[in-house]
Design a protein that fits this description.
The protein has about 500 residues and is of the alpha+beta class. The protein folds into two domains: about 180 residues, no CATH class; about 180 residues, Bactericidal permeability-increasing protein, domain 1 (Super Roll). Helices cover about 25% and strands about 45% of the residues. Helix 3 packs across helix 4. The strands form three sheets. Strands 2, 3, 4, 5, 6, 7, 8, 9 and 10 form a nine-stranded antiparallel β-sheet that branches. It is rod-shaped, with a radius of gyration of 36 Å. The two termini are about 50 Å apart.
Length: about 500
């Protein structure tokens, strides 16, 4: 009986071997589409990064904002023209807080600076009599961290990501201020201090709506910036998929397009559901606009639905052209043993009686249906390989012909972890059923088939595979091309029907 290790890994490697697939054309993929198959979830590190970028941009956009000139009147005392009015906000922090229906931006206003470049007060009866004052400034909320609360509506419209201002709360207490200046006044006016204080209070009152509007516009500008950034990274972004290589030969490629579908919010988390469309290898995709785009992606945890993996598998075998691969004895000692008729005779006694030209057989592995992955009710990832065929050929009368075929239905639970550059993998046998059949072209002298022995032997092989997994080339963590960059992954978890991994840029 076969008691060697690693046979299942060899079979899987040969089936999905990119050298074998190199001859297959990755084409006619337009119908391969996985709906809402990716979940791009911002990590806390990502939220902190966006908060930092948003604070920096908003602080820059809220400096030296102009306010329209203001005309004031003190009845029977003065007509006042106020010019060169500007304001600027100093922000201490910006926090992005996801909640069930959207986002809330919380800003800490550290200081409001209002500058009055010039005002002139003149006598209403004698306009030539008056004074001009220059460089007056007002500081509000100095060090008090007045809050600004912004409610954000995040939606996908026409496959575009949109961030919209839903609600805006900004309270300024105009009675809490400190004034400086004016630094210089020219002309004669008997109530200079009174006029100055009047101008300051009235300008504060008049400027308040301008400050609110200016802050809102800056926030909307921030949203447009973030919209552009997100859409440049995600919307219809194409990137080539290169499978890991195990043998010599070119690696087949396909292009995947990401299509935004829906935002998903929970307390503390923000996610975007994305559909994936496979395209022909020669279909040109959009280029990454900035190299920073990939750096930004590292702040996402990517959730993959098993359906996407299954679509990618179908993309490898267009037109239902499932592979048939010959396994040769030089590939692995287990294969060499299995090709020896004395070993196989443990299951097929006919081999002890059959008149064969040589003691070595040939073995072909084939798939009659697509393999697939799925999650069971407990959340465990399963690999399902239906109708895995092991077709043995024997040489008789100088010709190779079909001898016997094992038909295997296999379901294996996969427990996966990522440890550095290695995948940690353990197998949990869920189902293995085996049947066998003789070809019509051959009449065995002994039709006995020890099916149960063969089935148990294959089960034992699968249980033994785990001991070889650590050193298997299959378990080297793959890397993928994304534009002109290379990425790999870290961390691994299954949650809410998605397989989550974190992106790691390699260059």
């Amino acid at each position: 009986m076969l008691r060697k290790k690693g046979f299942l890994l060899i079979i899987l490697a040969m089936i999905f071997n990119t050298g074998v697939l190199a001859g297959a054309e990755i084409s006619k993929l337009s119908g391969l589409h996985a709906k809402k198959a990716l979940s791009l979830n911002l990590t806390q590190e990502g939220l902190d990064f966006i908060s930092h970028v948003a604070l920096e941009k908003l602080s820059k956009d809220l400096q030296e904002k102009k306010i329209d000139d203001i005309d004031l009147k003190i009845p029977f005392t003065a007509n006042i023209k106020v010019e060169q009015i500007k304001f600027g906000l100093k922000l201490d922090y910006l926090k992005i807080v996801p909640h069930e229906s959207g986002l809330k931006l919380s800003l800490g206003l550290k200081n409001l600076h209002l500058s009055i470049g010039h005002f002139r007060a003149s006598n209403p009866l004698l306009p030539t009599v008056g004074m001009s004052c220059f460089n007056t400034s007002v500081e509000m909320a100095s060090g008090s961290l007045s809050p600004i609360e912004i409610d954000v509506d995040a939606k996908v419209k026409g496959q575009n990501v949109h961030l919209d201002l839903n609600d805006f709360y900004f309270h300024l207490n105009r009675n809490q201020f400190t004034s400086f200046g004016p630094r210089d006044c020219q002309g004669l006016f008997g109530v200079r201090d009174y006029v100055t204080q009047f101008v300051i209070k009235e300008v504060l009152s008049s400027a308040r709506p301008f400050i609110n509007i200016g802050t809102k516009l800056a926030v909307k500008g921030l949203f447009k910036f973030m919209d552009k950034k997100l859409n440049s990274i995600i919307k219809e972004k194409s990137f080539p998929l290169s499978l890991p290589k195990f043998n010599e030969g070119p690696s087949p490629k396909m292009h995947a397009f990401m299509i935004p579908e829906k935002f998903v919010f929970n307390h503390g988390t923000m996610g975007l559901l994305v559909s994936v469309r496979l395209a022909e290898v020669n279909e040109k995709g959009l280029e990454l606009e900035e190299k920073d785009d990939l750096e930004f992606l590292k702040y996402f945890s990517i959730g993959i639905k098993p359906e996407l993996v299954n679509v990618l598998i179908k993309g490898l075998f267009p037109g239902n052209k499932l592979p048939k691969v010959e396994l040769k004895e030089e590939m692995h000692e287990v294969i060499g043993a299995l090709l020896d008729k004395s070993e196989l005779a443990n299951f097929l006694p006919d081999l002890e009686k059959a008149d064969l030209d040589q003691d070595k057989l040939r073995l072909f592995v084939s798939l009659k249906k697509y393999p697939s992955v799925g999650l069971d009710s407990s959340g465990q990832l399963n690999l399902i390989i239906p109708h895995l065929g092991l077709n043995f050929m024997a040489k008789r009368n100088g010709e190779w012909s079909d001898y016997f075929t094992f038909n295997i239905d296999l379901k294996v639970g996969l427990d996966i972890a990522i440890n550095g550059a290695k995948l940690g993998l353990s197998l949990d046998m869920k189902k293995l059923s085996l049947e066998g059949e003789w070809p019509q072209s051959y009449s065995p002298m002994d039709k006995t088939f020890f099916r149960e022995d063969a089935e148990e032997s294959f089960k034992s092989l699968i249980y033994m595979v785990s001991s070889e997994l650590e050193d298997s080339p299959l378990l080297a963590l793959p890397s993928f091309e994304f534009g002109d960059r290379e990425i790999t992954f870290k961390n691994f978890k299954i949650e809410n029907g998605f397989i989550f991994i974190d992106i790691v840029p390699l260059n």
